[in-house]
Amino acid sequence: MYRRIAVLMLLAGCLGLTACASHKPKPSAEQQQSSSENGAGANSAGASGANANGGGPFGNQSSISGPQAGMLAKRTIYFDFDSAVISGDGTDIVSAHAKYLSDHTDARVRLEGNTDERGSPEYNIGLGMRRAQAVRQALLLQGASATQITVVSYGAEHPVDPAHSEDAWQKNRRVDIVYLAANGQPAPPPQ
Amino acid sequence: MKPTPRMASLLRISLVVLMGACLAPTAARAQLQIQITSGVSNPVPIAIVPFAEAPNNGTDVAAVVQHDLVGSGRFTELPRNKMPGTPTTAADVKFADWKAAGSDYVVVGQVEPVAGGQLAVDFNLLNALTGQSIARQRFVGTASALRNAAHRVSDVIYQAITGIRGAFATRIAYVAIAGQGGAERFQLVVADADGYNQHLILESRFPLMSPAWSPDGQWLSYVSFENHLSAVYVQRVLTGQRSRVSMRAGINGAPAWSPDGKKLALTLSGDSGHPQIYVLDLSNQHLTRVTDSPSINTEATWSPDGRYLYFTSDRAGEPQIYRCAATPGSIPERITFTDEYNAGPHVSADGKLLAMVTRDDSGSYRIAVQNLTTGEFRMLTPGRLDQSPSFAPNGASIMYAARPGQAAAGILATISVDGLTGLSLKPTQGEVRDPAWGPFIQ
Amino acid sequence: MAESVRDRWLSIGMSVLLHGSLIVLLALGWWHFREPAPAPTPPIDATVVDARTLKGVGVAPTPSPQKKAPPQAQPQQPPPAPVEGPPPPTPDEVAMRQQAAKEEAEHEALAQQRLQAREAQRKAAEAAAAEQAEEAQKAEEEQAAAQAAAQAKKLAAAQKAAAKLAAKKKLAEERKLADEKKLAAQQAAAERAARVADLNQSLQEDERATAASGALASWTSEITSRIQNAWIRPPTAQRGLKCVLNVGLVQGGSVTSVSIGECNGDDAVRQSIQTAVYNASPLPAPPDGIAFPSQLIITFQPTN
What we know:
The complex is a heterotrimer. Helix content of chain A is 46%, strand content 13%. Chain A is elongated. Chain A has six helices and four strands. By secondary structure, chain C is mainly α. Chain C has a three-stranded antiparallel beta sheet with strand order 2-1-3, with helices on one face. Chains in contact: A-B, A-C, B-C. The A-B interface holds A 110, 117-123, 125-127, 129-130, 132-133, 136, 150-155, 157-158, 162-165 and B 180, 207, 209-210, 225, 228-230, 249-251, 253-254, 267, 269, 273, 275, 296, 298-299, 312, 314, 319, 341, 343-344, 357, 359, 365, 385, 387-388, 403, 405-408, 433-434.
């Protein structure tokens, strides 16, 4: 009888250990939440608000961790003059969205390429497309699939800032990531 | 030997005969021959006397004619307060007075009502020095078409004195943007070449660009983003009937009608993302690919004989203008070598000049022309943010889009081909861009 | 071994404990690992661009001339987060001030540019005028050389004319002498004397003609440059053009008639050359001893 009891206690102990093991993500989820509060800067209110509204304290467990978390809320990648090279923040933003797309295979995005107003309009359409294609390639390389992405170039026709200054031009040289619902209309973006 | 008297007289007679023979070809009267091997290129002084006006919608025909001719840069006007009279027919003109006032030519005319509620515009172009009538014509039309009649008067005068066909009675198409900050309205507008008589052809809340006229002036092709993606449409100007020509994946842009009106050059990128030049046969929708290079190839414009396409390509790193035959597999030849940025080509109707946007060493975007025969390159505008040049159908001037100041909205402007005379067309509100100068109106 | 009641209760208790703890663990696990239902959260509009793409929902443009229906109301959104982008967004006022300053600078720069453009234009015009003057001078020089050659011919003609006069005189004298056979020797002497006198006369004619040719050349070049400066050349007057005008003059230099001879120019060219000649009238006075010819022949033949 005591052997039986011992065996049963051993089994119970093993179960308890596995339960403890799966508790481990909890401390890292908390870590993720605090780092997003620190690192997202202007978006901190939104991010933490989302976490509060969303699915409890372990909200984004299935997505990225670490300092990239706030990047998912950013949906614009900026470029230098006459360049289609993704650099700086852009790289992280692309990675964040690539991971999201690879994890959510029914998510759809439209990449919108833009340029500043200088130069010939149709050539700028080509430059905007070059930027959008660069982002598309980067997304595909990091796990998104081609059917999830459509690409359009607005060239210089869709500026966020119509002024004729270096500041405005910098803000207009960009690719926007727009999430789409199944019917092709814009959808709520991921958190 | 001493000459005998007979021999001496024979000698003298023969001498006289010889002299006579030598003298024969010389004319008896004096004549002066002058060789003129050069002239000057000053503007021609002309006086356009106010026309005898019938009551109309307030159009001052003589003022419209004067604005046209002086704006071309080839004429200089006699101000009304310096005119030695107000004749309205040739018989009333005292030529000596007008010559003394400095005018080489005098234009007189009348506007009078005719049957059917219409107005007739009569004018007479007179040479103040010879007293002769050079051109005389009558145009009949409705009161609302009086400006058009005035432009046709300008065309006749311009051709009589410069030898070049006038392009004052032509139309332009352009894109206007009203509103701002997320509530813009994009409009495709057709107007007279001087900016009057605007007609709204299309309005959209999504960007419109690159209007292009068909050679007969009946159709416009343009790019619209109304489906969140680019697409090329053709639309009949008078009726508004439109059809979509291409909405393929990727870029659909830069439409250009062939000179015979049967084909449309297009820029398509497909899934690869590299824009290439294609030719679409409008009768059978057959698409032919013309360029094939992993770079941006766009902004095709046809040569007047319809055999070549000039286009922008950055296959050499920065955008330059190339030329190739409008058939697949032809090897493009580079045309521009001045500056590091040349784009937006447009060829004049006589095939001699190529207009383009160029970026100079200071980073300023300006309109320039290159002589396609001699290679001579000439800057025309001061810049800083000029784009979209379009030749008038007589090749004498170029219309383009300009942004004249840091905070100023976009305007249209024209510049004469010698770079000396320009006009600007400012909208009363909003901004305008992407001009396309229409063909001669038959 | 027989089971005692105590053993039985013990085993029951242990199994209850075991099963109970199992159930508790299961419940705990389920409660911890359940997936939260995805709550539809409203979007965060961080950039103006997103607002615009949302705006386009459901409304397509119609062709002219109808006005379109007003856009659909946008879905409810929380107030947008500040615009993101590299550099951090500046406050509006500073931006406005900066823009105003930039506008001023731009206006000045534009005025400067215009000034410079006008300067450049003036300089270009001056350079062009200087070029034209040079070309005119070259042309004049060439003309002067041509004129000199022409004048040499005229000299020869003038000489011949004078010689003809002299020959006529000789003839009259010869006839006299032929009748007077007795005075052969005197006639010969008289002939010799006459020949010497003729020679002297032709020499004097020579001198006058030489003096006249220099003045003639400068007078014709004066007329040429006056007409050139008066000829407003239309764009259709290109190299290859050749037009000849016959111009009637009166003493005093006024042009009384212009008629076009051989000419391959269009109507605009023909107008321009007539106008040029009339504008050059009255022509400058000729040098002493030379009268205004009654007719001028002007050939318009541009060299470039």
